[in-house]
């Protein structure tokens, strides 16, 4: 399979031989839009290697509140934590659109990682990158809400966006509640901050909640201008 995988994804990090071996594993599966791919608390322990499409990773706390933890796209694993440690699922994964993936059992994945230590190292690196990203969100809590929303959008576009006529699109719907949960703020605050960005011409929303960024460089600058922070770096 010829494919330019995102550089930050597991498949994008692997050497060609290791990547091809991983792609040869498992059983092809498809998921319809809005279908549940992994359920929080479930005791199954397979992993899913995403090939096409985007998925949202959500968690529900004891009070019943839902938070969006991350977005996964082609080249990423979902459900790998349960496959590695055998514990119940820590989050629910929902397909944003049609998903093509590989269903990989825990024994198959563990045997592959035992053979390919470089894949195991890169899997750790991917997990570390996600933790660093979450830590950045916490460090930004004292910053103005509009700056925080702009920074989240820059990160999402750089990681998952694709070029389109006149700018960049995320390629998956994103509600204000989900954006608020990533940025660590109340939905009403996120709504106002997003409106400020939209009024400034930095972002545009489509009928299906798709986010369009006419000028990514301007969004980077906007994410720093209010507090004198450095613009988000290129990935």
From TrEMBL:
Gene Ontology CC: one annotated term: cytosol
CDD domains given in the database record: CAP_ED
Cyclic nucleotide-binding domain sequence ranges: 10-113
Domain HTH crp-type per the UniProt entry, residue ranges: 143-217
Keywords from the UniProt entry: DNA-binding, Transcription, Transcription regulation
Keyword field contains ATP-binding: no
Highest taxon in the source lineage: Bacteria
Pfam families in UniProt: cNMP_binding, HTH_Crp_2
Protein name as catalogued: CRP-like cAMP-binding protein
Species this protein is from: Saccharothrix tamanrassetensis
Species classification: Bacteria, Bacillati, Actinomycetota, Actinomycetes, Pseudonocardiales
């Amino acid at each position: 399979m010829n494919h330019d995988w995102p550089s930050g994804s597991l498949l994008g990090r692997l050497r060609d031989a290791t990547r091809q071996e991983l792609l040869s594993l498992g059983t092809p599966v498809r998921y319809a839009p809005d279908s549940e791919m992994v359920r929080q608390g479930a005791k199954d322990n397979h992993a899913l290697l995403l090939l096409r499409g985007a998925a949202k990773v959500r968690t529900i706390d004891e009070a019943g509140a839902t938070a969006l933890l991350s977005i996964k796209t082609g080249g990423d694993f979902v459900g790998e934590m349960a496959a590695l440690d055998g514990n119940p699922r820590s989050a629910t994964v929902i397909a944003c659109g049609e998903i093509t993936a590989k269903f990989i059992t825990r024994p198959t994945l563990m045997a592959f990682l035992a053979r390919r230590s470089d894949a195991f190292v890169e899997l750790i690196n991917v997990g570390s990158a996600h933790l660093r990203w979450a830590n950045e969100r916490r460090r930004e809590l004292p910053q103005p809400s509009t700056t925080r929303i702009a920074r989240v959008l820059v990160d999402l576009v750089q990681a998952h966006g694709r070029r389109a006529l006149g700018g960049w699109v995320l390629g998956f719907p994103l509600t204000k509640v989900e954006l608020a949960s990533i940025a660590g703020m109340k939905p009403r605050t996120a709504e106002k901050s997003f409106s400020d960005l939209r009024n400034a011409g930095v972002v545009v929303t489509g009928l299906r909640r798709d986010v369009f960024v006419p000028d990514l460089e301007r969004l980077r600058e906007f994410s720093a201008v209010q507090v004198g922070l450095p613009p988000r770096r290129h990935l």
